[in-house]
Write a structure and sequence with these properties.
- The structure is a single chain.
- The chain has 324 residues and is α/β, with parallel strands linked by helices.
- The protein is 39% helix and 22% strand.
- It has twelve helices and 15 strands.
- The protein is globular and about 55 Å long.
- The two termini are 21 Å apart.
- Zinc ion is lined by residues 53, 55-56, 58, 75, 77-78, 80.
Length: 324
């Protein structure tokens, strides 16, 4: 059996995955959609609420950065960076049900679908598989178009997905994956899972700790929770803070609510009695900053530098494997 740390890294070209004009289109469309929640560039109190740190529940009010009218602060206790004040839950949910998310799927998910299916999602599944010596039951929360589950199903895993947005749901169901429509908060199951995955989900939800707790309760003995979240410790985040960059991807105002720090991840493990089995970072930090097309030679050098950043846990996303 391959050890998870031996699974080969992959190199992805951001522009190939998400063409610049598509990124720009989604960025502008969301900003236009979100404008109604502001008065004279300030959050309208009717729609926003002040919160404590979503990961450690402590209070800290110093503004760190302002991006597209949204304020982000850093928690001095656990280093999490989070949106505060943030849109109330009902308005956040509307964003996913009112069609803006469909625009995202059309512009940013579907164009890179083949790269995901053939490269990035295959590696995710290889990592999952390396932690078990049998095909088990996997629950993918926020499974989107079901690409990851399709691969797991092809490898004899028993697959269930939950998806909030209809557009993702329809695509996944066409692929024959067992998908339940709705939120994880309302999900009930009598069976336990060997693995529960949150790929790019916990940064979107108002209650990430509740979701992890729920996952723990649905896990079988020795089960594994896998989540991928944007990193508060990353090169890209440091660049955004120090140089005022407003990236089309990564921050995604109003959608990415929480940026996780390694300190917070370790705190979660301790509080939920989980073992940090493995952690890595993957990112597109440099291309996100440069956001430009280059010839192949330069792109290769960028990918090589990115891989060094990845290996040093300094990239824009953490991928975390927690064992019960
Ligand atoms: Zn905190």
């Amino acid at each position: 059996m391959t050890k998870i740390s031996d699974i080969k890294r992959i190199q992805v070209d951001l522009i190939e995955l998400k063409p610049i004009k598509n990124q720009e289109e989604v960025y502008n469309s969301y900003n236009k959609y979100l404008a109604k929640y502001f008065n004279n560039s300030l959050p309208n109190e009717e729609f926003f609420e002040k919160i404590n740190c979503p990961l450690c529940e402590q209070k800290n009010d110093s503004v760190l950065i302002k991006i597209d009218l949204f304020e982000y602060i850093r928690c001095n206790v656990c280093d999490t960076i989070y949106n505060n004040p943030r849109l109330k839950k009902e308005f956040l949910e509307k964003m996913y049900s009112e069609g803006e998310y469909e625009n995202y799927v059309k512009n940013l998910t579907l164009p890179g679908d083949q790269i995901r299916k053939n490269i990035t999602e295959v590696r995710k599944f290889d990592q999952l598989k390396s932690l078990f010596n049998f095909p088990g039951r996997v629950l993918d929360v926020g499974c989107g178009a079901g690409v990851f589950l399709t691969i797991a199903a092809d490898n004899n895993w028993n697959c269930t997905g939950i998806e909030l947005s209809k557009s993702g749901l329809n695509i996944a169901q066409k692929k024959g994956v067992n998908i339940k429509e709705g939120s994880f908060d309302n999900y009930h199951s009598n069976k336990k899972y060997n693995c529960i995955t949150f790929w790019g989900v916990l940064e979107h939800v108002v209650n990430p700790i509740e979701q992890i707790k729920k996952a723990v309760s649905l896990l079988d003995e020795n089960g594994v929770i896998i989540f991928e979240v944007p990193s508060a410790d990353s090169l890209l985040m440091k660049y955004v803070i120090e140089h005022g960059l407003v990236p089309y991807r990564f921050i995604e105002s109003a959608r990415h609510l929480t940026f996780f720090s390694l300190k917070a991840i370790k705190m979660i493990c301790e509080k939920q009695s989980l073992n940090l089995e493995y952690i890595e970072s993957n990112g597109l930090d440099i291309q996100t900053v440069l956001l430009q097309e280059f010839d192949a030679e330069i792109i290769n050098k960028i990918k090589n530098i990115q891989q060094l950043i990845d290996k040093n846990l300094f990239s824009d996303h953490y991928r975390v494997f927690l064992r019960k």
